[in-house]
Amino acid sequence: MSRKKLIAANWKMSKTPDQAEAFLGAFLPLVFGHTRDEIVICPPYLSISVVAELLQNTGIGVGGQNMFWEKEGPYTGEVSAPMLVAAGCTHVIIGHSERRQYFGETDETVNRKLKAALVGGLTAIVCVGEVLAEREAGICDDVLRRQTENALREISGDQVSKFTIAYEPVWAIGSGKTATPEIAADAHLVIRKQAALALGEEAAKKLRILYGGSIKPENAKALMSQEEIDGGLVGGASLDPKSFAAIVRW
Ligand code: PGA
User: Fold this and answer.
1) Nearest to 61 by CA among 96, 35, 91
2) Of 15, 175, 215, which is best to mutate to test ligand 1, by the most ligand atoms within 8 angstroms of its C-beta?
């Protein structure tokens, strides 16, 4: 089964609109005509409009880094799926470990957000991953199964083209420590097996599972050429146009 890879930049809390524009000025020529992989850029909210405008007709997607599940109302500081779509987003990251760690996201909120993203017409990138202590305690697979099961509650197999799961071992994020391609591929198999219970075998075969955690130009090829790895979610190394382009062109 060949699944088109998706390489997404997660800029986190980096880049003002001006800095985003400068990035694209340098980045776009470097990936011009690249169609092998799908490319998505996830800027902070305030830079979404400028990025969406500059990416028109490039085939490159734009993603939010988070969203709330309600459409509108008295939820200070939040944005909704329809608002992301109106600003030009095609994608949204849900349940990133930094949101789970610093902003109280739980498996349950991840599930509510995923459902709202799908209703809103966004393609979701749902993050799962174990922390170091869980890996060391030998419960990594249990954690991945639990997170996947809960994220996919009431999601059906016919929605599988509208979301991806990103396996992001928390110990590999921003740490310079990358999971080996084998560790990542093993984790992806656990996630896919669990997804099959929720979505059905056939749909689970179509599910794209990305890897994230210290992807760099130097390790992108080894990771991306794994059959089980359907793309990457790139943080730090996506902030520099040359380095993100080198990852896209792995
Ligand atoms: P990193 O971040 O590439 O800087 O490790 C990845 C992520 O958090 O999505």
Assistant:
1) 91
2) 215
